[in-house]
């Protein structure tokens, strides 16, 4: 078996005040880091340039203009594959995720290298209640569109992807490039037979955190995605049901 090599991929869009601290916390774990600048403004772009110059383990990829979180993560995946990595650990740039949980994610990925390790958020009192309740509707749609309860949370941006199967999916499927990405790629990887394993992780919403979720536009985009996946599920339902029966 070839050695597992993991790089952290962070999509960044105008997180000038949070990204340096996150890079430092990730560095404690000895992991290389790939920052994907998704068309940030001058302030954040300058911070990213400085981080790449100061740290040997930090690489920088730039997209212009802004293309969306999904586009940034996919660009990071392709660059990681080009650099010879077998896995990427995706983490958001806004400081919500607890980087102290990284060793647990890596341990699970080492144990199950072909599986996707997906964060299952454990929230504190900082979580906006509207965002929390809204997630449950997406959870139900994901369970319908996979005919499975395997994916416990499809919206958490803290996860480890096996690159071979993920890049193969990117080559054959058109996946949403914005806030619909995290959900859609999990459903499509499940359809492709990649097992999703859920790992609890603490999530905090910083008071000064920057969120680029646009309520009406992104909810409309996500609703459209669920409808598209539903018809995709109908086409695949015989195979999905057969797989479910075999696993019983």
Task: Provide a short characterization of the protein structure.
The chain has helices at 19-27, 42-54, 69-82, 102-111, 129-146, 163-172, 181-191, 215-247, and strands at 6-12, 33-38, 58-63, 87-90, 116-123, 159-162, 196-203. By secondary structure, the protein is of the alpha/beta class. It has a single domain (6-247), classed as Spore Coat Polysaccharide Biosynthesis Protein SpsA, Chain A (Alpha-Beta Complex).
Task: Name the features.
single chain; 248 residues; Spore Coat Polysaccharide Biosynthesis Protein SpsA, Chain A; 48% helix
Outline = globular
Strand proportion, as a percent range, falls in 15-25%
* Spatial ordering of strands, largest sheet: 3-2-1-4-6-5-7
Number of domains: 1
H/E order of the elements?
EHEHEHEHEHEHHEH
What is the number of E strands?
Answer: 7
Q: How far is the N terminus from the C terminus?
A: 29 Å
Mean pLDDT: 90
CATH topology descriptor: Spore Coat Polysaccharide Biosynthesis Protein SpsA, Chain A
Helix content: 40-55%
Helix run count: 8
CATH superfamily: Spore Coat Polysaccharide Biosynthesis Protein SpsA, Chain A
Structural class: alpha/beta
Q: Specify the CATH architecture.
A: Alpha-Beta Complex
What is the C-level CATH assignment? Answer: Alpha Beta
State Rg: 17 Å
> Which regions are unreliable across 5 or more consecutive residues at pLDDT < 50?
none
Q: Main β-sheet: number of strands, strand sense, barrel status? A: 7 strands, mixed
């Amino acid at each position: 078996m070839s050695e597992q090599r993991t790089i952290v991929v962070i999509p960044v869009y105008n997180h000038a005040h949070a990204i340096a601290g996150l890079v430092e916390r990730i560095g404690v774990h000895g992991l290389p880091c790939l920052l994907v600048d998704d068309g940030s403004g001058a302030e954040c772009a300058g911070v990213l340039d400085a981080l790449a110059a100061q740290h040997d383990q930090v690489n920088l990829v730039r997209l212009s203009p802004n293309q969306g979180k999904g586009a940034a993560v996919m660009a990071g995946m392709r660059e990681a594959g080009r650099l010879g990595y077998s896995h990427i650990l995706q983490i958001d740039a806004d400081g919500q995720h607890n980087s102290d949980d990284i060793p647990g994610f890596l341990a699970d990925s080492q144990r199950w290298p072909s599986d996707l390790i997906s964060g299952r958020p454990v929230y504190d009192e900082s979580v906006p209640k509207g965002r929390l309740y809204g997630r449950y509707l997406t959870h139900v749609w994901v369970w319908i569109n996979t005919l499975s309860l395997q994916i416990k949370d499809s919206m958490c941006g803290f996860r480890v992807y096996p690159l071979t199967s993920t890049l193969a999916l990117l080559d054959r499927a058109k996946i949403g490039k914005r806030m619909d990405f995290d959900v859609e790629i999990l459903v499509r990887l499940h359809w492709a037979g990649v097992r999703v394993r859920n790992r609890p992780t603490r999530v905090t919403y910083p008071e000064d955190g920057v969120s680029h979720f646009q309520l009406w536009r992104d909810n409309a985009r996500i609703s459209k995605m669920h409808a598209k996946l539903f018809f995709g599920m109908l086409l695949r339902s015989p195979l999905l049901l057969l797989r479910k029966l075999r696993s019983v």
